[in-house]
Design goal:
The complex is a heterodimer of chains A (52) and B (221). Chain A is mainly alpha-helical and 52 residues long. Chain A has one domain. Chain A is 63% helix and 0% strand. Chain A is built from two helices and no strands. Chain A is rod-shaped. The termini of chain B are far apart. A two-stranded antiparallel sheet of chain B has the order 1-2. In chain B, strands 3-4 form a two-stranded antiparallel sheet. In chain B, helix 3 crosses helix 7 and helix 6 packs across helix 7. The model of chain B has no long low-confidence stretch (mean pLDDT 89). Chain B is elongated. Chain B has two domains: 34 residues; 170 residues, Cytochrome Bc1 Complex, Chain D, domain 2 (Orthogonal Bundle). Chain B has 221 residues and is mainly alpha-helical. The chains are: A mainly alpha (52), B mainly alpha (221).
Chain lengths: 52, 221
């Protein structure tokens, strides 16, 4: 699953995140989208409380 | 009871928070990426070369070193390997001299509009051969061009060719005479040698194989 880093900048955080099947694009999108679920449920809770 | 399941999708606050999160995170990431890239795109120093520190873009004094183009099995493409010192036009160039020479070469390449026909580091045309790794072309390396131009070294042969390209029909599409002077030719060769030492992640792809396969031809289709 994990390929050895083939770039010349292997110590770089973005090079590490770019290894194997977990590409930088997928990683960054995951990092951005996951907290949006948190925002959604927090707002849902707030909206429900206000509606009561 | 029905009010308990009020929709979040119509909540202005939800959309505002989501937009702020995405925009804010993307902004921070892009700024971080920009500064993170600085180390990769900045030129190395003379000390890096002397100490064998690999930089993607070596110092101008790389013209004082032998440059090889070697297949790296791990990376899956050829990479420039900076070897032992070798004279460039019969001498070793100081850091200041090399930087000035490279600058002159760059200005000459722009003044003579090389990109009108050639490609340099991915920019330019494909009418004439890609110049990114021109210095490493086997035809200059194996003595063919030195013999044709009657010169003793690769750099002198290259400079001679640049000054009188129409005298040496080496390519299917002959290069026109651009009235390049001796000084400009030396600077251009230094510019080309430095460019070939840049680690371009294997660009142009399969350079050495194509150079042999398309000998005297062109990779423009």
């Amino acid at each position: 699953m994990w390929e050895s880093c083939t770039d010349i900048a292997c110590g770089n955080i973005f090079a590490l995140l770019n290894e194997g099947p977990l590409t930088l694009t997928i990683f960054l999108h995951t990092v951005i989208v996951l907290p949006m679920f948190f925002i959604y449920f927090q707002e849902k809770k707030r909206v429900n409380e206000e509606a009561r | 009871m029905s009010k308990k399941n009020a929709s979040v999708w119509t909540s202005i606050r939800f959309w505002r928070r989501s937009a702020a999160w995405v925009t804010g995170t993307a902004t921070v990431l892009l700024i971080w990426l920009t500064f993170n890239t600085m180390g990769q795109i900045s030129m190395g120093s003379d000390a890096d070369l002397a100490n064998g520190v690999k930089k993607r873009i070596p110092a101008p004094t790389v013209i004082n070193y032998h440059i090889d183009y070697v297949m790296d099995q791990k990376r899956g493409h050829e990479v420039p390997v900076i070897g032992q010192k070798e004279p460039f036009f019969g001498k070793q160039w100081s850091a200041e001299e090399a930087a000035a020479l490279l600058h002159h070469g760059k200005l000459t390449s722009q003044a003579k509009n090389c990109m009108n026909c050639h490609t340099l580091l991915g920019n330019g045309a494909y009418y004439a051969p890609d110049l990114t790794k021109a210095w490493l072309d086997p035809r200059w390396e194996d003595g063919t061009m030195a013999a044709i131009t009657g010169k003793n070294s690769k750099e002198e042969a290259m400079a001679e060719f640049l000054m009188h390209p129409s005298q040496y029909p080496t390519h299917a599409r002959m290069m026109p005479n651009l009235n390049i002077t001796q000084d400009e030719a030396v600077a251009l060769v230094a510019f080309l040698k430095h460019m070939s030492s840049i680690d371009t992640n294997g660009f142009p792809r399969n350079f050495s194989q194509n150079a042999k396969r398309l000998e005297g031809g062109t990779n423009a289709h």
